[in-house]
Amino acid sequence: MIVPSAAAKTTKAKTDSAQAKGQNPTVKGKSKPGTPKPKSEGSQTPPNAASKASGLAQDLSMLGLEEDRVKRDDSPVPAMSMKQAELIEKIQKEEASQEKKGVSLVVVGHVDAGKSTLMGRMLYELGELSEKEKIANERGSQKVGKSSFAMAWGLDALGDERDRGVTIDIATSHFDTANRAFTLLDAPGHQDFIPNMISGASQADLALLVVDASPGEFEAGFDRGGQTREHALLVRALGVRELIVGVNKMDVVDWSQDRFEDIQDSMRPFLQAAGFAPEKTTFVPVAAMAGVNLANGDNARLRAWYTGPTLVDVLDKVEVPARPLELPLRYPISNVFKGQSAVSAGVGVSGRLCSGVVQVGERLRVVPGDETAVVRTIERDEETVPYASAGQNVNLYLAGIDPIHLSIGSVLCPLSDLVPLATRFTAQILVFDIAFPLIAGVPLELFHHSNNVPATLSKLISVISKGTTGSKQNPRVLQKGVHAEVEISLRAPTQSTSTRAPVIPLEPAHVNKEMGRILLRRGGETVAAGVVTSISA
């Protein structure tokens, strides 16, 4: 069953009110995934399965709708225009000749570090937020006593977000630099919304980690229990290899070079241990509220000691990952919604293609389940397109399926190459900085893309040595910092009347890297991350 979220209901009420009063404009090109829009929108070589210690080290530790229920749509649907091989060849040629390469960027960091303000200001600097919208946001935020959140309102469109001054859901926007076309995912920083942050980070190629340079604030975010440290580990575990650290609120510390360098010195060893190579980690001093060193670095106090690039300059030169176009289509659903225009009629889903290609007219299978659907429309960056490919964040509008058969965490795939379903599997994991060791039988929460299900650490198979001494078989406990091979079993939710364990669609990492990454959490804390090596049942 698809039920409208409280946020979705709030959005509608706020939107109706805003339309009546002429307030609360939204940013051009911005949407909440799953929120209907009035107009149409837009790898790596798989690791060897036998490479246990090195594979994990390199990948980790180097590391709304029930009331608007859509009826089944049996009207005619378009036919596919190209064969799969022809489409892949066409996309490869287009990508080779593209002037601007597409990149998905997730913005993460400790609560109140200024993530939404920074990105709202940058959208304004780049012309994606108009002067009229900026002024309206300033007036609207002043009326509710939150004038300092005016720029953040460019991204925080939900009523609850504006009322509370924190990001709750993943906000999606689009902006271009000279050489890159970005899909921007603004993730919540508050610990209560870590699942939403994981969903956003799983769709990203690149991460911008925003830290607060204010006295005591950086330390609060970076010390144990702060979200700076956990967010960095999470984005690396989810496959992000390039990181930009935006050291924000430098104006608060009077553009102190010592403060900037102290933050760098504190973070670099941790980030390198987490798996971010030094050459793929860039620190940029900024002041989001004042708009300094975002697109324009013209500030005498900063330029007295900083000769590096602006944030936009760094973004413009980021590496674009290789896309696994030739692997079978894997499209994890991150949201389900109802299309409300002639072009985007029917049930819609949002997400990112992990691999493969998809085109209008193609019939796909929804896993888990036996239902199929035909792709009626594809939207990317607010435009209707005939096809989409790996690495792109798109909305798909489907025909021939009831929305009751679609849910967050389901995967769309070809009828001829289904995603395996698992209730028990083996994985190699890296245990994070946990307060208590892990033992067999401990209950956990498993995160895989937008899916999170109850699980159990059913068996400790071995601890993988970093040296040449081999592995320790059948360990009794897993301490912090160890690499281990474990068996994980899904279990029925405690509130469920059924005792049957759920199934989730996933694949070993050597088959499809993005479909093989997992995170494990317990008691509101991320305890481990890893890659699936085999499916047992």
UniProtKB/TrEMBL annotation:
Gene Ontology molecular functions: GTP binding; GTPase activity
Reactions catalysed: GTP + H2O = GDP + phosphate + H(+)
Family in the record: Belongs to the TRAFAC class translation factor GTPase superfamily. Classic translation factor GTPase family. EF-Tu/EF-1A subfamily.
Positions of the UniProt region annotated as Disordered: 1-78
Subcellular location: Cytoplasm
Keywords assigned by UniProt, alphabetized: Cytoplasm, GTP-binding, Hydrolase, Nucleotide-binding, Protein biosynthesis
Source lineage: Eukaryota, Fungi, Dikarya, Basidiomycota, Agaricomycotina
Superkingdom assignment: Eukaryota
GO BP term (any one): cytoplasmic translational termination
Main location: cytoplasm
UniProt key word Coiled coil: no
Domain (Tr-type G): residue spans on this chain: 100-325
Compositionally biased spans, kind Low complexity: 1-10
Bias kind Basic and acidic residues: ranges: 66-75
GO cellular component terms, A-Z: cytosol; Dom34-Hbs1 complex
Quaternary structure annotation from Swiss-Prot or TrEMBL: Component of the Dom34-Hbs1 complex, also named Pelota-HBS1L complex, composed of dom34 and hbs1.
Bias type Polar residues, positions: 16-26
CDD domains recorded: EF1_alpha (cd01883), HBS1-like_II (cd16267), HBS1_C_III (cd04093)
Protein name: Elongation factor 1 alpha-like protein
